[in-house]
Amino acid sequence: MMDEENKGTEEDLKKIQAHFKEENTKRIQLEIELNYALEELNISNTEYLLAIKKIEEYKDSFKKAYHRAEFYKDLFSHDIVNILQAILTGMEICEAEVDDSSEIQKDIKIVISQVLRGAKLVLNIRKLSQLEEIEISLKRTEIYNILLNTIDFVKNSYKEKKINIKVDSFSTQIYVQVNELIRDVFENILYNAIKHNKSAIPEIKIKISKEQKLGENYVKMEFQDNGGGISDHRKEKIFKRGYGQTKSVHGMGLGLSLVKTIIEKCKGKIWVEDRVNGDYSKGSNFVLLIPEIC
Amino acid sequence: MEKILIVDDEPALHYFLKRILNLSGFEVAGIAENGDEAIKMFKSFSDRPKVILMDHRMPEKSGIEATKVILEIDKRVKIIFLSADVNIKEEVYSIGAFSFTTKPLKVKYLIEEIKRALKSYKFSLSN
Question: Which residues, including other chains, have CB under 8 Å from residue A114's CB and lie 6 or more apart?
Answer without folding.
Answer: none
